[in-house]
What does this fold into?
Amino acid sequence: MDSSPQSFLARHDFLIRRLHSLSGLVPVGAYMVVHLVVNASVLESPAAFQKNVYSIHSLGSLLPLVEWAFIFLPLLFHAIIGVVIVGGGMPNSNQYRYGPNYRYTLQRATGMIAFLFIVIHVFHMHGWLHADFWLEKVARPLGGAKFAPYNAASTAGAALQTTVLVVLYLVGMLSCVYHLANGLWTMGITWGVWTSPAAQARASVVCTVFGILLGVVSLGALFGMRAVGQGESLQEAIQIEDRLYHHKVESGELEPNEHKRAAPVHETEGEMAQSQPSESINSQ
It folds into this structure.
């Protein structure tokens, strides 16, 4: 009989697995749904998307705190524990006793793909860190930090024009969607919400429909954003964003902040270009 002491992870397997399961739904999964829906609002218009981005950035100095407390730290916890589970660092007592084994395999594979994609996506659009030195000397020279919050649709769309990136986003986003939808089903089993075969079958249908709908939203967000970044649509988006920016600044709703804008930005009043642009649309 093996009398060697168990590791911390093995001793707290029950709690860690449930926290891992819960964090995948709240807040990480919930945030992903909101993020995709907000991005898909570009299908309505660049103005609708920009207004949603302004709402998010209205948190001001609280935004980084909210991002770390409710997005990045829970995501890191979920990802690290997931890697430990996949690597065999925790007892495998939860290996599928339910459902086809391919769903178990896909859940692990899409989890790894999703985490890698999120790391790349955050660098590509935001550069990981907001420090000026990092952005100017590291992120932008390496092709990152392409998103400017006050020129949201135009910079995001311009950043999604290469086929390689579109394929990367397509695979990554659909992996995230599958991982969340199937994870919702397995979470119900982990937490004892649906235990009978009939309940699991009904839950499987619900989660499948949810996954398909969220997949459609994600595709709309990706290709809608890409369409805005092309030709006349790009110029129209820039003009709309500039008008919204000036309106909010003039009304006192927004403090001027050129670091969150992309340049060249064309002034709607008099069509005057900014004399000291902070960034180039081409570099975004």
Summary: DSSP finds eleven helices and no strands in the chain. The domain at 8-260 is CATH 1.20.1300.10 (3 helical TM bundles of succinate and fumarate reductases). Residues 126 and 145 are 4 Å apart (CA to CA). The two ends are 61 Å apart (CA to CA).
